[in-house]
Amino acid sequence: MTRLYIEALRLVGKKNSYVVTFKQGLNYISGPTSTGKTSILEMIDYALGSDSHKSYIEIGESCTDVELEIQIESKKYRITRKLFEFMLPIRVDEWNQETETYKYLDTFEFDVPSNEKSLSSFLINKLGLGNIKIMNQNLSFRDIFKFSYLKQTEVDTEDLMGESIWFKNNKRKSTFEIIFNVYDDMLAELKATLKEKTVEKDNFKLQLEGVEKFISTTDIGNIATYRSKKNEIKDRILSLNDELTRVKNDKVIGNETTRLLRNEVVKLKQELKAFIEQKLDQDEYIEKLRLLLNQYQNDVDKCKMILLGVPEINKYNFIVCPNCLKTLKERNEETHCKLCGSDMSSEISDLLQVKKDMSSLKSRHTELKKHISVEQAKSDTFDRKISEKNKELAEKEGELEHLQQGYINPYIEKIEYLNFEMGKFNRQLHELDFNLQMLEEHERLLKLLKNKEDDLSSIRKNIGKISTDQNDKNEVTKELSTVFNNYLKAFHFPKLDFGYIDSKTYLPYVRGRKYNDLGSLGGVTLIVIAYYLAILNVTLDTDKYYHLNLLMIDSPRKNLGADVSQEEFRDEEIFNSVIKTFIEFEQELGESMQLIVVNNGYPDFVPKDDIRVEFDPNGRIGLIDDALH
């Protein structure tokens, strides 16, 4: 079993939910551009604590939350996070084996791992790595996860370890050492974490004992008893409600005339409600028309101002300049400005267009006023109908009241009794709900205590593992280099051989040259994929290493295949060899890892069971496709 296993991703929609399920081994997601392939990986990333996600229009219009069902160290959880609201609390539910449902565990914040109530802290504790500090910062789940997610923008990265910025490089290097269990300070950090977590667990246990004492003192009972009693009361309320309905329907209060009148009153009220709603809709429509009418009037006024301004000024011959009072040459040409002498032929043409526009606007304004008058008449008609219905309703209600005066119904007492009994049981149900909530909260706190004890157990296990068998750095890089070089060979590109991993920087080298000195993005893509695969392969032994046993790769075809600019990487066989490597990896070690690959298309030799999602014009068009639900 993998250390982190993704079972399902669910986008919770306003009308529908959109689900993608995964399996162990290879999971291939294929489809054209803009169908939602990459968003699947990004939503997994978001649910696992990334600070945000892209503003996907289709997802924003259709969905409210993302749910991710995972197994982490054999425990099952469901993480629920609000979409487009990045700072809101994150809900975590835990799988209940007895009821076979998810039950609420706790709510976590999106925050730094040093905050014990952050999602990162929760996840890193599940791995038994607690409060390990690197570069004066807490190790976060996101630090570990970086070695499990090869984004589309990073498939050809030339900054694998963040080496371009020294402090990022050091944190990435330290995380690498933790994953491979060669970090020098890891034992001391875990022992300090064990001490802190033990104190935290003991304090929590004291609080829980206080809750248990209160429950014992008040003699509330247990959850099973309350749930059984609650179901009994609900059944009793339903029975009373059925009897009450039967009495009201079968034993009608009053005579036949009264019953008919009551039906008429109900019908009149429904008709009145419909007229009022139609009236409101009509008035809203008229208001919109008036706003448009005002806009037309404003536009007409603007045209008037334009037409008024230029000709009025040009009526005058200016003798002196209005600014400096120097004499100006007299000009009488109609097509020239009498102030500065500029040619106004184009302005005259523009004025003619303005006149034309104004005429059109006036025409629309007039027609719209007529239309508003017609619509206002409809609104007035609704007013009359409402008035008539109100009058008719008042008459019928008065007549009904007169008929019922002095009439004693033999079933009123029965109805009052049934209502009294229902009220009594509803009060009992309310009391039960209050006590049940307290018991369920106690059950949740017990679950949290068990989680804290499990976290301590994981830390102790890791301390024991490191104390007896911490890995040798040179042996690790030697093994990693061998696997890395084998993957390069499997990719069938002759210039990428003799690869190894440097034991100081943990960066890949090929033919003695650092991976980003090759001057070829196609070559970098193959090296980066081989590097991430090698890390996954070597760390599958969960008793020796701390990798998640998960790798997500977005667009391995980038810079490879028939469409790329570099001729040496246009050979389709190079891309096919990468996919064959994925398949062979699954066949050999599929039960120990999870590999999720997103790409535009796939070779025909990919096993059908490995294709988890396929978006195409002839089938499922995209992730958010309401026509399919």
Outline of the structure:
This protein is an alpha/beta fold and 629 residues long.
Contiguous uncertain segments of 5+ residues: none
The assigned CATH architecture of the largest domain is 3-Layer(aba) Sandwich
The side-by-side strand order for the widest beta sheet comes to 2-1-4-5-6-7
The radius of gyration over CA amounts to: 38 Å
Question: What about the largest sheet?
Answer: 6 strands, antiparallel
Number of strands: 16
Q: What's the CATH H-level superfamily name of the largest domain?
A: P-loop containing nucleotide triphosphate hydrolases
Total helices: the number is: 13
Helix content: 40-55%
Query: Any idea of the CATH topology of the largest domain?
Result: Rossmann fold
H/E element sequence: EEEHHEEEEHEEHEHHHHHHHEEEHEHEE
- Ends apart, CA distance between termini: 33 Å
Average pLDDT, rounded to a whole number, is: 83
Strand content: 5-15%
In the CATH scheme, the class of the largest domain would be: Alpha Beta
